[in-house]
Design a protein that fits this description.
single chain; 128 residues; mainly beta; 3-stranded antiparallel β-sheet; 14% helix; elongated
């Protein structure tokens, strides 16, 4: 969860910068995942995940934005979203009706008792 609504702030700034015109496209430039410091019993992604997918989901569509085959460390950066085209979700990106998420295959052996909290940071740009 985030404080306030940073994506709504982005949409407002975008609208103002484009002179109230609808954007021609919204892109996701980068994504960073962090194991949150409030996690318990786990301090890195490899303890729980054998691989990870970062995805965007709307009411009708789920698209993979990136895949990490062997996650390591407590921070993972996708400098480029190498997944599927965002053409089919442009309307949802323009009105903020989407979710970003993480899913993956777990390790064969994971801790019996853990609480993994993940922060996801995404950087967006809009073009006319």
């Amino acid at each position: 969860t985030e404080e306030g609504n940073p994506y709504a702030d982005f949409l407002g700034t975008m609208e103002e910068a484009l002179g109230d015109a609808a954007p021609g496209a919204i892109e996701i430039h980068s994504i960073a995942l962090h194991v949150h410091s409030d996690s318990k019993g786990v301090s890195d992604f490899a303890t729980v995940f054998a691989n990870l997918d970062v995805f965007i989901s709307t009411k009708n569509t789920t698209l993979t934005l990136g895949h990490i085959e062997t996650p390591t460390g407590s921070t993972i950066r996708l400098a480029e979203t190498s997944g599927e085209s965002l053409d089919s979700v442009q309307r949802e990106l323009a009105n903020g009706s989407f979710e970003l998420g993480v899913r993956g295959q777990t390790q064969p052996s994971i801790p019996d008792d853990f609480d993994l909290e993940i922060s996801l940071e995404a950087r967006f740009s809009a073009y006319q």
